[in-house]
Amino acid sequence: MKAALLRETNQPLEIADVKLSNPESREVRIRTVAAGVCHSDLHFQDGSYPYPLPAVLGHESAGVVEAVGSDVSYVKPGDHVITCLSAFCGHCEDCVTGHLSLCQSTELNRAPDREPRMTLDGEPVNQFLNLSSFAENMLIHEHALCKVNPDMPLDRAALIGCGVTTGIGSVIHTAKVEPGSTVCVVGCGGIGLSAINGAAIAGAGRIFAVDMLDNKLELARKFGATDVINAGTTNVVEEIREQTGGEGVHYSFEAIGLKTTTEQCFKMLRRGGTATVIGMIPVGTTIEIHGPEFLMERKIQGSNMGSNRFRVDMPRFVDFYLSGRLHLDDLISRRIKLEDVNEGMEALKTGEVARSVIMFD
Fold first, then answer.
1. Residues 327-350: what's their mean pLDDT?
2. What is the set of domains in the chain, with CATH numbers?
3. What does pTM read for this prediction?
4. Which of 88, 152, 210, 292 has the CA that lies 20 to 30 A from 78?
């Protein structure tokens, strides 16, 4: 199968002919139909987050089941599925206490003495985040996928696999935004726009969108933003406080992964407010918060994949889309081929696109 292989950090992905193994007992082989090019892929390509190489990147995808292992009963060939990188074992402490997105079990991988799931010229290729979806096929554990309504277009379904679930989940699960509350989302890429959409679905009374590109701010209005702020022309914290009568917002969300914007999200909180960091802050970065800012019960927290329960959440997100409440059509900036994956990665660096989606059909 053709796959986009990363051999070295800070190098382009290489289209290679990778061999895929056959499904073992709990594994599923999927024909990849669509894969979103997510900013997280870029973080691993440029070395901001280390990962064993060579590896096939990609983690935001949807496709059709082709074959299943002997012990798989959840799906069958022909089923439409969305994949999810936060695979769960189902019986560790995180799983049994309802925090499936925090599961770190290694039992979902093949044992070292088994044939690797992917090889190139007889040598093992590392699977990326349980998936490796920049490839014509995926071989994954059954706990890394969710069966969905076949009426759902798979190019839009792919976005639910990471960005949408992360953005909406951070709002409804991690932060538990209340109806009528004030919300600010800093960064209007795919995850930020999804957080804005999630805040609108949750019934937030006022939703501020912050970015440095006017076209993204206009897009944010389509996703539910009531107010937009261009961070390149104004002091964001001062503007938020002025717009909220000097109080600040109940909830803020950092969707970029930067020190400065994370600190801004905390400073813009009202009393008792909560800042949630969604963005992947580079390894080694220190966030500075001054002690008095914690007075009046202000809080800052992280969110991993939107604290999801993806087999429950994803079918609901599909229903939201089919009923017109989830705005996935506007989230896709362009559709590309696998051979154009490096162009998609480069487009992430400019911040001018919400999502490029690789189409395999």
1. 93
2. 2-147+328-359 (3.90.180.10), 167-303 (3.40.50.720)
3. 0.95
4. 88
